[in-house]
Amino acid sequence: MRSTVLTALACALIVMTPIGAIGAGVGPVEQLGPNSWTNWDASVIKALGFGVEPRGADSSAQALVMARRAAVVDAYRSLLEASLDVTVRSRTAVEQAGVKWDTVEAQVQGVIRNATILEERRHPDGRYEIVMQMPMYGPQGLGQVVLPHIMNAPPGPQPVPAPALRPRLPQPPTQPGGFTGLVVVVRGVHLDRSMSPAILTPDGQVVYGRGWWRPGEFDADLANQHGIVGYASSMGGATRGGARPIVVNAIGVAGPPLSNFKTDVVISPDDAARIREANSGARFLEKLQVDIVVEP
């Protein structure tokens, strides 16, 4: 029986679709390591693993199984490194919530076991290749480890952006009939995507995001399922804001204290006032109906 299964596996490999480009997928792809990457628009993390058939195997079928097993282990290792890279961008918020970082790292190691195999292939030279993927959010996503701490983090000291802010661009016309969400457009400046972004005014007031929530003012299950913002590379991909979002243009970016990442979006005080006024009735911020559109 074992021999039959192994033979079937080897035959299946012959007709497998070759693994495509590492960056294949919807939206921008960010390389995290030599064999790992993330797609923030699609909210997934992927990793590539390789295994080599050992020379001392009893049979070619056994060598194939051992190469595949080695590829799986290698993919898990790359996925762990990538997941920690994504998580570390939220380290400030997690530590502000009084959680030790090594505790979070241990939890991340457990979450990656929920990853699934997307593609696999045996190369003619005996190498075995596997692509694994895990979601950032949802019941088996990385957000289950990070987001509960972010939502409970106190406001803490907020950064003040660098003096050279981008000039305020013309704003889209006001939508009739009230607003269904918020879209912030970041254009012409690098933004580090994160699970714990904040939308700030130039003097550091939190309009939305990290440190903004109060107990009972948000749906924690919704945050764990979808994250606190959606990222998109164009207005067409900004779906969380609904049919009539209030749209504002960022004037700069900033980062949490003691962080090397520029994860926070800076908007003008006038736009902050517009958002707060619009949200006073619709409460779209409490419903996490917020998109950040990152354009070149």
Low-confidence stretches: 1-27, 162-176
Distance between the termini: 56 Å
How many domain regions?
2
Number of strand segments: 13
Tell me which oligomeric state these chains represent: single chain
Main-sheet strand order equals 1-2-3-5-4
Mean pLDDT: 81
Fraction of residues in β-strands: 15-25%
Mind summarizing the main beta sheet?
5 strands, antiparallel
Name some characteristics of this structure.
alpha/beta, 2 domains, four-stranded parallel β-sheet, 296 residues, 13 strands, elongated, disordered N terminus
Report on the structure:
There is one protein chain. By secondary structure, this protein is α/β, with parallel strands linked by helices. It folds into 2 domains: 137 residues, no CATH class; 141 residues, no CATH class. The protein has 7 helices and 13 strands. A 5-stranded antiparallel beta sheet has the order 1-2-3-5-4. A hairpin with a 2-residue loop joins strand 1 and strand 2. It is elongated and about 70 Å long. The N terminus is likely disordered.
Chart the SSEs and their pairings.
Layout: H1 2-14, E1 29-33, E2 36-39, E3 44-52, H2 60-88, H3 91-96, H4 101-111, E4 116-122, E5 127-135, H5 143-151, E6 181-187, E7 198-200, E8 206-209, H6 220-226, E9 230-232, E10 245-249, E11 252-254, E12 264-266, H7 269-282, E13 290-295
Question: Could you give a quick summary of the protein structure above?
Answer:
This protein is α/β, with parallel strands linked by helices and 296 residues long. Helices cover 30% and strands 23% of the residues. It folds into two domains: 11-147, no CATH class; 155-295, no CATH class.
